[in-house]
Design brief:
The chain has 134 residues and is mainly beta. Helix content is 14%, strand content 43%. The radius of gyration is 15 Å and the shape is globular.
């Protein structure tokens, strides 16, 4: 399988049709693979809730576009902004395990993201879910 312009264009088209303005593409090789490895096409206007992954770091690499990875404190306040733009030599980042974060999409973008744990079973939670349990 190639990750090429044709695949990314297809993901952008699907993201345009998706009310969430984003579309992921699973890169795992089998159902037994308990990691999360995916491409995620993101369009400006998509809302990614503040969330965290308590059991894993998250590796984010930007293939095309421009985004800002926003790291937040325990109260949801912005703590750090990591500008990703491959044309400027800023290719990716590692979001620390358990860090609250979100993303701002500045132009149509595709990220490769990877983290440990099976999707839905890795303890990931949104900021709102966490505070609703309190």
């Amino acid at each position: 399988m190639e990750i090429n312009k044709e695949l990314l264009d297809k993901l952008f088209e699907q993201a345009k049709e998706n009310p969430r303005l984003r579309q992921n593409f699973d890169l795992r090789t089998s159902p037994a693979d308990t990691s999360q490895r995916m491409l995620n096409a993101l369009l400006p206007g998509t809302v990614v809730p503040i969330h965290r992954h308590p059991q894993s770091t998250e590796n984010v690499f930007l293939l095309c576009g421009k985004i800002v990875e926003v790291i937040c404190d325990e109260n949801g306040n912005e703590k750090e902004r990591i500008h990703l733009d491959p044309t400027a030599g800023n290719y990716g980042c590692v979001v620390p395990q358990g860090a609250w974060h979100t993303v701002e999409v500045l132009e149509p973008s595709v990220i490769y993201e990877a983290k440990d744990g099976k999707y839905g079973e890795d303890g990931s939670e949104t900021f709102d879910e966490f505070h609703a349990k309190k």
